[in-house]
Write a structure and sequence with these properties.
Layout lengths: L3 E5 L5 H15 L16 H4 L6 E7 L2 E10 L7 E9 L8 H15 L4 E6 L4 H9 L3 E3 L13 E6 L1
Parallel strand pairs: 4-5
Antiparallel strand pairs: 1-2, 2-3, 3-4, 5-7, 6-7
């Protein structure tokens, strides 16, 4: 029987999580510069999300990580705006409504932290992800918010919480 849980990232998850995220990024062909691939905190996700009003959640099946997503205040942005960050899943976790469950989990956390708007960035060819974001109530906006450093991500969406 499959045991799938969503939980906060632990320090012991760092290496496996970095590997999962990089594997997905390579699979989908993202540029290694100007995207999450180049983020220095990718190897230290537990520590990265120890800051105030931030959390990273992993998707675990029978003790194996299959991906995750995080919420954090939007860097260089309005303090009432959070960012849905680094939401990536291995192929075996896709198409099973787990992405929807992860977004719901992250947005619930964001509301608990009293954020009013959730922002995210993605790439134009990530059509399945965009379809999911739209289904969960996100809407396209005309330009970036904050200063995330993800210059290659040129599709932006927000959702009122």
């Amino acid at each position: 029987m499959k045991m799938i849980i969503i939980r906060e990232v632990l320090e012991k998850d760092n290496a496996d999580l970095a590997s999962v995220i990089r594997q997905v990024l390579v699979e989908i062909g993202v540029p290694k510069v100007g995207t999450a691939y180049a983020d220095p905190e990718l190897d230290y996700m537990h520590k990265t999300y120890l800051k105030d009003r931030a959390a990273y959640f992993v998707l675990e099946e029978n003790g194996t990580l299959h991906g995750g997503a995080g919420i954090a205040p939007l860097q260089g942005g309005d303090p009432t705006v959070c960012e849905l960050q680094k939401m990536y899943f291995l192929p075996e976790a896709r198409g099973k409504t787990l992405g929807e469950k992860m977004i719901d989990h992250c947005l619930s956390y964001a509301k608990e932290q009293h954020f009013k708007t959730c922002y995210l960035e993605t790439l134009p060819y990530m059509k399945a992800a965009q379809k999911l974001y739209l289904k969960k109530g996100f809407e396209y906006i005309d330009g970036p918010m904050g200063s995330t450093g993800h210059t290659s991500c040129n599709v932006w969406l927000t959702k009122k919480l």
